[in-house]
Amino acid sequence: MSGQAPEAGTLDTIPKILVENARVRGEKPANREKDFGIWQTWSWAQVATEVRALACGFVTLGLKPGDKLGIIGDNRPHLYWAMVAAQSIGAVPVPAYQDSVADEMLYIFEHAEVRFAVVENQEQVDKLLEIKDRALHLQTIIYEEPRGLQHYDRPFLHRYRDVQEKGRAFDAANPGYFDDAVARGSGSDIATMLYTSGTTGRPKGVMLSFDNIVITARNSIAQDGLTENDEMLAYLPMAWVGDNLYSVGQAYAAGFCVSCPESTETVLEDLREIGPTYFFAPPRIFESILTTVTIRMEDAAAIKRKAFHTFMEHARRVGTRILDGKPVGLIDRLLYAVGQVLVYGPLKNVLGFSRIRLAYTAGEAIGPDIFAFYRSLGMNVKQLYGSTEASVYITTQPDGDVRPDTVGRPADGVEVKITDEGEVMFRSPGVFVAYYKNDDATRATKTADGWVHTGDAGYFTDGQLKIIDRAKDVGKLNDGTLFAPKYLENKLKFFPYIKEAVTFGHGRDYAAAIINIDLEAVGDWAERRNIAYTGYTDLARQRPVYELVRDCVAKVNADLARDSHLAGSQIKRFLVLHKELDADDGELTRTRKVRRSFVADKYGQIIKALYSGTDHCPVKALVTFEDGRTATIDADLPIWEAPGGAAAAAPARAAE
Predict the structure, then answer these.
(1) Which end of the chain, N or C, is surrounded by fewer C-beta atoms within 10 Å?
(2) Does 151 share its domain with 276?
(3) Residues 114, 100 share a domain
(4) In this predicted model, what pLDDT tens digit does every residue of 596-620 receive, in sequence order?
(5) pTM
(6) Burial label, 37 (beta-carbon count in 10 A; 0-12, 13-18, 19+)
(7) pLDDT surpassing 50 at residue 291
(8) CATH number of the structural domain spanning residue 261
(9) Are residues 602 and 489 in the same domain?
(10) Integer Cα distance of 324 and 226 in angstroms
(11) Are 166 and 19 found together in one domain?
């Protein structure tokens, strides 16, 4: 690498930033990965060497500028390097969700015209081999983990390490090739293509330029004060825009270290070992951690349980005020300090949150109680609102003015406005270039002057944005009451016992809900009450569980009753579904968003029963297990009335 400093303004691509990081902070850690229980670390200089060898290896195999390179696997340094290696020679990485089934991958690979793929292991190779004959553009597959692949004798299969060896030989024979290729890159070039979740149809390929990612990364780094000394754990899908922005854009622009967990099952353990300073998690992760803490505390000794509840009650009263720098009495501060020693500090240490100075959550609304719990511990957890088309950032919550019911103010460099119809629109340096091969969708989403339709309904309150629902999903009951299904569903999911919810009401006389219980939380609750059950379906139909869910719905209705706009949309009837909504059954996207229209079609009989006055609904359903097996479930689902705006009479027929 050259020792000469680049001219100002020339570091406009990720590969150029990598070369500079190797020059100015070459010995500082760039990536870590835990393998077989041992953490391995690569410096920025080592990462640059790895990327250079792989990029040159790609050239020997025929990867050309403009070609698409599929990336599939868990978060792995080698896969991040593959992305940057492709970018270095002008190719475009296209990450896919690692838990996608083969046919889902086929659509993305064919639509994106993917020629090369770099995958993690045998599992992903097998998926691609299944679709290879139908993926007409796919020519070359490179795998990183050779376990189980020794006897896969295919000419188009290559081991990652072997490709790098070819690259080193090419680099030795053509020493200027890599540097020239990196130098030719421009901020306006396409850096990556990420596919939307496809909640309402086929996923769209969102083309993001280096300018989109690099400028947005630098703006957010300046806003949040990130430095090369920060550390984060990369465990969310590489196909998600947030991981591209945090684990690549911000990490490269700020120069901080990104660590990869050993597996999805060891994330919490690895989190404790790494102790990141910067953390992102969707609400479901924060909810899951809190559920685990709650369950463990119920198993603790009485004196420990008493101390936990006493100090947490105090933290809820003053912890957030202390975090926000607001006035708190001396005695309260002293008591909080004692709690820090006895409860808050040890708890954060066990969770791996001791060093966190900034954490974000986004994607869904987070429950106020859950949000307050973490902030009361002294963790600076904030909400942001973003999208793939924005390169993540639209709004963020400012320090000292963090509210549980808003998503903050426009992020640095971002403009936000609300249309007359109540839709949120934004304009920023992160605005996507276009949807790949979909000019009509691009024109429908992005205006000629750069404003983007989010499709979300919201409004500003005291300068902060509040999101209500997807604009297209906001409807009205027959009496004219505003009906915002996502808003109701999020309120239901704020309870640890409710994992998913789908509400209905537009064009109907009242709101009704289909609910999924959280098997872990409700299972633990049932065991403590000596309630026997054989599995999800059995547990979901039991009367005590229905009573538990009814209490949650009643609290939601009580909250809605205080909102003049939504009081009439209180949930009148509900049932607990006999199975968990599942992405493999088409009911959820891979990012766990409900495919509302699909659910409405699939469970039309159940929805009809919710509005027919009957007290039960017999169902026969086909479910798909993780190993691909299918089975038919027969169930008779009780339907209950919910306390609140509707009649609260007990159901005539209850679960056994």
Answers:
(1) C
(2) yes
(3) yes
(4) 889 999 999 999 999 998 999 988 7
(5) 0.81
(6) exposed
(7) yes
(8) 3.40.50.12780
(9) yes
(10) 19
(11) yes
